[in-house]
Design goal:
- The structure is a single chain.
- By secondary structure, the protein is of the alpha/beta class.
- The chain is about 40% helix and about 25% strand.
- The longest helix has 18 residues.
- It is globular.
- About 40% of the residues are buried.
- Bound molecules: adenosine-5'-diphosphate and magnesium ion (MG).
- Magnesium ion binds next to helix 1.
Length: about 250
């Protein structure tokens, strides 16, 4: 359990070695309940490993992960859908695996699908019949259907074009506002990290967190925000930190 009641995720000196290489190096981080924290860092710096440790998929070599939330859900960069199942059946999967598939579950799937912008017709399609954006919506719905307390998102929109990415950013923000789900969002886009986050953690190539930037912008985010001086100042500051972290 987390040591303070408001803490959803607490990492203390978290380190992971693969063979003789340290890929995560003494990461400390507290994420409060309902908070949105974005993480940026160069490719290979350990961002996915960090999320995998929180999800219990990778065992830390040293340090601790404490969770103050019951059921974190993971969304991967690829939609990772089962090709032989329809959208509906993919979204149902976590409920079936936990023995919760039922008529009530059907309604829950319909409700979640609507929330992420999937129509009834989309739900009947197989992944190969859906666009990349729609597949990611199914993947998001599959994560949300278990009513998670926390969402761990690993570059979920990296493969999408900019317009679609911004649209999904906005939809995800609406869901976050509506449900106050603790969110840890990994991205390699500084602009995306700032636009979405209340805080941005910056990692360097050696797997350490080298800085943390409070995103002191209004909680309601709108597209026009991307053109403000404040937004540009924040992205410039984080980009500079990233550059320094490469040295
Ligand atoms: P990021 O998500 O920031 O790109 P990752 O967490 O995927 O970085 O990987 C960090 C480093 O750990 C990379 O060098 C990667 O090759 C290595 N790595 C990741 N998973 C494993 C594993 N299971 N075994 C060995 N090395 C791994
Ligand atoms: Mg990764």
């Amino acid at each position: 359990m987390a040591s303070t009641p408001n803490c959803a995720i607490e990492l203390e000196s978290l380190s992971v070695d693969f063979q003789t290489v340290t890929v995560l190096d003494r990461v400390d981080c507290d994420v409060q309940r309902g908070e949105w924290v974005s993480i940026v860092g160069p490719s290979g710096c350990g961002k996915s490993t960090l999320l995998r440790c929180i999800a219990g998929l990778t065992k830390p070599t040293r340090g601790t992960v404490r969770l103050g939330c019951a059921n974190p859900a993971f969304v991967f960069q690829d939609a990772t859908l089962l090709p032989w199942r329809t959208g509906f059946e993919n979204i149902c999967l976590p409920l079936e695996l936990t023995g919760n598939g039922s008529h009530d579950a059907d309604q829950a799937v319909q409700d979640i699908a609507r929330l992420v912008g999937l129509s009834t017709a989309d739900l009947q399609k197989y992944p190969r019949q859906l666009s990349g954006g729609m597949r990611m919506r199914v993947s998001l719905a599959r994560a949300l259907v278990i009513a998670p307390d926390a969402l761990l998102l690993d570059e979920p929109f990296a493969a999408l074009d900019e317009i679609l990415r911004q649209q999904l950013n906005q939809e995800l923000l609406d869901i976050w506002h509506g449900h106050q789900i603790t969110t840890l969002f990994v991205t390699h886009s500084v602009a995306e990290a700032v636009y979405l986050g209340q805080r941005v953690l910056v990692m360097n190539a050696k797997g350490s967190v080298i800085g943390e930037v409070e995103i002191d912008l209004p909680n309601e985010r709108h597209a026009a925000l991307r053109n403000t001086v404040e937004f540009h100042e924040l992205t410039a500051r984080i980009s500079t930190m990233l550059q320094e972290g490469l040295r």
